Structure formats: C-alpha cells, structure tokens
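seq/struct pair 1
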Amino acid sequence: MNYFEFYELPESFEIDEKALKNKFYQLSKKYHPDFYANEDDAKQQEILELSTLNNKAYKILSDSNKRTEYILQQHGLLADGDKHKLAPGFLMEMMEINEALMEIEDEQSFSALKTQIDGMDDELSEELSATIKNYEADNQADKEKALNTIKDIYYRQKYLLRIKDSLNTFAARF
C-alpha cells in the first residue's frame, strides 16, 4: 500500500508534519492490538499487519531523506543495484576531495576541507529545495524532469555523505 494513500495525504516531498503525526496517532489507537484481543486469529493478524504498516509508513514519511527515497522508488526511479551515472565534473570534484582527505595533516587543513564539504552539502540542499518547489507546482512533464533531477541530487548527496563519514573518521585525530 502507498504510504501517502494510507495516511490520506497528497504525495509531497514537503509533507505537513503535524497532519502526518496526527494521522499516525489516530491510526495507532485504531489499530492497537490490545483492542482486538478478543477477536479471532485472522482479525488479530490483520490488525497487527495494519499496526506494522502504520509504524513503517510513519518512519519513512517523517524523515525527509527516507521520504525522498520512497517517492523516487514509487515512481520507479530507484531500484536495488541501480547504477546511476553521476556527472563527470562532480566525480572529479569528489576525487579531489578524497585526495585532500588523504593528505590531511593538521587541524587547519581538516577545518578547511570540512568547510568546503559543508558548503557543497548546503548547495545540494538548496538545489534540492528549489527542485522540490518546482515539482510541487509543475505539470506532469515537468514533474518527471524534476523527479530525475531529484534522483541525481539524491545520489550526489549519498556520495557526499560517504565522504562526510570518512571526514568524521579523520576528525578523531584532531
């Protein structure tokens, strides 16, 4: 079942957090297994599955990164083992960052690289926000183009996240 349909919310990258939380609590009460203790096994299993679905849907939709991934999956743009090709310029920039990461010798070079990476992360977040706004307002053809741009940003953010994790490993040295 589509999580947005389950919560009776429109598909959106920028979800109404309050409405989501209210629907989650409403369904948590409605599908709480304790209220169905006297029902037959089939009904108890159905309620348990709905309760699990409610928890999983809330976990995905309440996290902006997981929600983005979910929407892309719903539109068939993400699949396990997907080999998305990133722009050569971006990959070159990441290679230079990785080389700089291996050459960190002091706190000053670490701080400079961290600032550079944080700046790149901020730029990607701004690009994502602008694309999401266009997605929410555009016609169907433009939505598909926006989804593909969001997919590219998603993969660039994942790549940058791996670099940030490596940077955090180096942070322990200083």
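seq/struct pair 2
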Amino acid sequence: MVETGVAFGRFQIFTLKHMEYILAAKMRCHKLYIGITHADIVSFAATSSLDQHGVTKRDNPLTYLERYEMIQGALLDFGVRRKEFDIIPFPVTQPDLIPQYAPRDATYYLSICREWDEEKAQAVQRQGLKTEILWQRLGEECGPTGYDVRKMVAENREWFQYVPKTVSDYIRKRGIDQRIKELERLYSNPEWKNQKPRERSADQ
C-alpha cells in the first residue's frame, strides 16, 4: 500500500460506479485525494474532441461545492474515515497545473472505459506522474455513467438504485433533480438550438 493516491472525475452525478472506482483506489493507499474535474464554468471549454460531455451547463448541472459535499457524504456513509481522504479541484484539461493541486509523488489511479479516459491517462503520464490502471472495461461493463443517470432524472425514470443513498437524498433535498429537468428542457428547445453561440453563452 502506498502513502498517497489520487483518483479523479467530473462526478456529475456521483454514481455507485464512481464509488467502486474511489474505493478501489482507496484500498491501495493510506490517503486518497479525490480530484473534481471541470470545477467551474470557465473550465467547460473542451481541449479535446473526446471531452464530449464537459462543455455545457446541461452536462455540468452541479457546482463544485455540491459535488464536494455529495462525495464527502457518500464516502463517510460507506465508512471511509475523513482523515483518510481529501477532495480537491483537478484541472485535467490543463494537466501542467495538476501538481499545483495534487501531490506529485502520489500514485494516480484510473479506470478506462472510453477513449477520453485513455487520453486523460496519457495527459497525466506526460506530467511525469505515476499512474496505475485499475481496470479497462468496455460497453455495459462500465455500468451507468453520470450522463446516464442525469438522463434518467430528466426523463422521470427510476435512477435511485444507481447512486449511493446519501447522493439521492442530497439531490432531492436541494432540488438538483428539478434543475436537471429544467436544463434538459432548455437545451432541447429548438429555439435555443437555433440561437447563435454568443446569444446562448449565458446559459452555458
């Protein structure tokens, strides 16, 4: 077991598959730093064509603080001691800044399900950081993603079973489920789609 590790993701919404990834990383280190990517709206500008879901408000309905609290509550409920993890911003689209937020001597744990995951792994490795691939999965093996769960929420389908209970409670208590539905309606509106990018930038 190493001293420090890092795991990261957008966590829009934090799912049970995210929890599996985080716990697998935590089992390999004494202290885990959990990085939240696309921490604010400024970072929504994609630097890769593979970063398909990181660029709009619809795909990023939760704030950094909401994701922080959601992840923290879920981990504590799963029995992870607070002193054994920290939650930090993680500028994956500007990888040269990663060492300003996360320890350089940590092991960076990754799960590979898509081409974008492979590109992120390469970006971290190019910084001279040690990486370990926890698993590489395809298709249904990856399980429901945050995108899938948000889609279920927007379409009034059952979604609770795909997230930790603390997460579903958090989302409903703060009205985030209604926010997701409203953003889906907004972005599905033909009039909004026909607007010029400059005209709709305030919504993004």
